[in-house]
Each structure stands twice: as structure tokens, then as C-alpha cells.
Amino acid sequence: MAVISTQYQAVVGLAGHVDHGKTALIEALTGMITARPHEQQLGMTQDLGFAHFQDDHGNTIGVVDVPGHERYLRNMVAGVWHLNVLLLVVAADEGWMPMTTSHLDVAHAMGIEDIVVCINKRDKVNAEQLAEIEDQVLEQVMERSGLLPEIVTVSALKKDNIEALRQLLIDTVQVNIARHKVIAPANSDDIAVLEPATDPLMYIDRVFVVNGIGTVLTGTLAQGQLAIGDKVRCQPSNLIGTVRSIQAYHQQLTSVSATCRVAVNVKGVGRKDIGRGQLITGINQHITLRDQCIVRLTKTATTLKVKKQRQVEVAMGTWHGTARLSYIPNTELARLVFEKPMPLLFGQRLAMIQKGGSGLQHGAEVVWTDYIFGYQKRRLYDVLNNLPHQLQPESQRQMLLVLQGYFECHDVDFKPTEQQTFIAPFCFDNQWLTDISQQVETLLGGGISMASTELCSRLRINDAVIELIMQRLKQQQKVHLSYGKWCVGQGDNEDDLPQDALNILHQIRQFGKAGLELNKVKIVGGKKWLRQLSHQKYITALDENIYFDMGVYLDLVKAVIADHQPHDRITMTDIKDRTDLSRKYSIPLANRMEKDGWVKRDDDERIILKAWH
Q1: In angstroms, rounded to a whole number, what is the distance separating the alpha carbons of residues 405 and 401?
Q2: How far apart are CA 406 and CA 424, in angstroms?
Q3: How wide is the angle at C-alpha 25 spanned by C-alphas 19 and 26, nearest 5°?
Q4: Of 108, 278, 345, 491, which is least surrounded by CB within 10 A?
Q5: Cis peptide upstream of residue 200 (ω within 30 degrees of 0)
Q6: What's this model's pTM, rounded to 2 decimal places?
Q7: Interval 458-492: pLDDT, tens
Q8: How far apart are CA 2 and CA 194, in angstroms?
């Protein structure tokens, strides 16, 4: 794999058993002490610590110091949720320990692909013992993760072989970045660098207030870019703020790109309104907020024998909380139900920890966040259970095409394949679009008309999609919209009316049988649009002041005529009872029916002139 030579930023995380020398190793590597004073007194890291160093070309590599004690496993997840490389530290005089296993399991569950093992304190053992530790470490990592790690031995306190560790980390970081951002076309030496996603994504790990500056949020910018003046949204609180200043690695910047440790001063967000675990996104990003999701289990504790519903602690990004876990039979899938809606992303990694304990029960990744209809479940589970091992954005799109025939896409550079049709913002499978269009024409056959909402229900498609399909069929002159309902064939389309006229029509329809009374409602555009709508028979005037939607009027006519035949007589009381209208409306209705040739007045009675067909 070719390595890109452009500027980059990256983050390395240090993990391992307590007192194996992680904090001392960071100091030797970066010259910075990450442990806080009270942590130095305790001799253990309790929360995340941060430092950084640079490669020979001025690229900055952030370093996250992860707590080693089992009580702080959730903080460990917060530290590794988005790393380029994991540096797993093992003390030569103690070897592999239980928390080394836990940290490796969590890192693997969170999808970290590049692992470097640093055997620290090599000055405390002889060469033979060091070789045994190397073999032990190699065996453990390969057995538990299937990955072949690079191994380096050092003494942090004596600054021995630190330069070799530093160079190995730089090389591994560059390979990691190249793998995710570079595509080498087949039979070509050229390298195409992919443009990184510009939408920001950052879990908050700390919030504090600086006098004279305001609220500052810190975290790892895992995706996209942030710049001064950008609007950002905090999820799930839905608060919106403006970036006023940015600091990364002790430097004031005007913009910053992933992956990077960053502190952001945000105007409009108060310290009490936001906290650790919230997600910072772009103002227009499409982030799903759901109180449940389906996950694919990627790693399961060997001691977990019985698959039954249980309460678990979920660690996701820097957030952790409780959820109810239910296994889906005969699959590697499970359902998580949270106490409140959470921001969830396709492919998002999470760890499930024994409630009240420190053991990793499952690693998992989010594969479905939408509502599931009963008829969809078995097909959905089959599709989700057969997703590719490595999830990519394209994996979700292919899954949705197989499952429902379309997916929503807001990527401005998206280009559909020959088998797809793009009608913004949806991309359709061509065969599915043909089949569903034929189903629409069949439903509307025989003179039947249906509103969009009815078509949505019959075809089990959401309203935005059915609207695009109907507009496409209208352009093909296969359907037209009349009285708020779709009809097969050509005809005048009411949705082609000017917007002012459509607004009035919509307003009249909202009144229904109550009718629109001009002396009570002010109509923008006045009688001009009312005359046009009446002329085109979208509405009808019972008198000079009362207007009904034509569909409502015809329903009332049908109720009056009912099973009567020509020459039958009907009283005003009958008309009032059959239409459930007041006398104020029933008399104008009878007069309108007389003008339209349905009835003829004879004293207090009306004579039916034609039957209802």
C-alpha cells in the first residue's frame, strides 16, 4: 500500500494494565506529563490524558492516555472510540495481565485495525525473559484479534529505544491513513487521494468555561472539518452554536481537520446545557435520533453462555449508559433499547459492558435504526445478517436497495450506476422503480382515484418517495392529479396551479364541510384566485361567500341523491339530515345543486332531475 505524503493529523491511544508505565512512556515520547496531580499521587490514570508529538515533516500525532484500572473501563472506551493506531503497553517484568486482555478486546470490538505492542521496562528482565514475553504477547494478540502486531521493546524511564517506538508509530499511522484515504487503481501506479468527508463528527469528552471566552468543548474530531464561524449542532440536546475559536495541540487555528484532538469555543451553548457524551455535528448533517437500534455483534465474551434478554451498560464514543439487550434468534443480531433517543450512525461501533461490572460482554456495530414493520422483519434480519465484514457507507446503500429498492443520498457528488435512477434526494433501483410504477397504474386502473396518503399505505412506501414517483409518472403523462387525488391518464394537474392558488385550495380543503366563508377568512389574492379555481372546477361557490372543495361538494351531492331516481321528491329536512349540514349551509347547497342541474325546486320540495352515477 502506498503511503501519502500530504499533510495529515492522527491520534494514537495508549492502553494496558495499570502500572505498566503508560504515563511514563508518553512523557518519554512527547515530553509531556498527562497524569493530573491527584492521579500522580495515586499512581494510576483515572480519566483520559492527552499529549502529542510531531513527525519529521511537521505532522502532529495526538496521544490519548487511557486508564488502566478495570474500574475505568468505560473511560477506556471513550479513549479508543476513534483512533488511528492503538499502542498496547505490556510491562516486561509482569507480562500479559487481565486488563491487557480487556483493553485489547475493547479496542478490537471498537474496530481498531492497527495495533503496535510496546513491551516497557525491558531493563528489568534478561534477554531470554524478554523473548518469552514477546512470544506471549504475539500469541495473545493474534489469538484474540486475528491481527499481527508490530512489537517494540523500550525502557521509558531510561529513555531507551524510544526513538524506534516513535518511528514505528509514525510509520503505522501513515499506513493507516493511506489505507483509508488512498485508492490505487488496478494496473496503475497512479494514486488517487479520496476527499475526506467535510461534515464534522466529534464526541465531547470535557466541557468547561474559560473566563472571558465562554464554553469550551474538547474531544477527538473523528471526521470532517471545523472552522471559525461554522454552525454546529449538539446531539441529542439539539442545541445550535457557532464556533468562535479553535485550539489543537496548544495552537490557535482558524480551521482543523480530522483526525485530531481539539478544543472548540462555541458561542450559544451553555455549560449546563451540554456534557460529556454528546455528539457535535454539522448544522445540516442527517443524524438519526432513536431510542432503539439493531446491532451486529462483532465480539462476544467467552463466558457468556446463555443468550437471554438483559440490561447492559453501553459505551459509545464518550457516552455510556444503560440499555436493554434482546438477541434476535438464529442471527448475530441484537436489539438495543435505550432510555432516551440517542444519535446513531450506520456502522457505529459500541461496547456492551456487564452492568455494574467491568467485563466486556459484546462488541457491536449499529446496522439499523429505522422503524420495522412486522412483514419486513424476517427479510430485514436476513439482509442485515449477511452484510459484509467491513462496513462502508456503500454497504448501507446496497442493503437498502435490496431491502426497499431505494436509499436517501445527500452527497452532492453522488453518481448513480446504470442500474440506478437518481431523483434527488433518493436513488432508486431501476427494476424496483419500474415495478412500483406498474403497481401504481394497476391500483389507479378502472377509474379509481387515490390520494398520495392512500398510495403510501397501500404500497408501504413513505410519502416523500411516493411523491417523487407520482411526479415522475405525471411527467410521463401516465397520471394526473385531480381534486387532491391521483388518476390514471392525462388531464389537468392541480399541482401545476400557481402557489397562491394552491395555498387557497389547501385552505378550503382544510375547512371540509365547514366551508370557507369570505366574511370570516382573509384570502391572499382575493377573488381572482377563487374565480380561477371555480372556473377550473377545483372548488364551487354555494353563494357569494361560501366556498367548498369540489370533492366535498360532490360527496354532499351524492349523499343527497343517494338511491333516488329522476322525478323523486326530497324535502329540505331530508337534505339537512343526509348531509349533516346546518340550515345556513343546506339551503345554499340546494340552490347550488339546482344551478348544476341536479334538482329543481317545487315550493318547499326539490325534484330529483338525474340519478347519481
Answers
A1: 4
A2: 11
A3: 115
A4: 491
A5: no
A6: 0.72
A7: 998 988 999 999 999 999 999 998 878 898 888 77
A8: 14
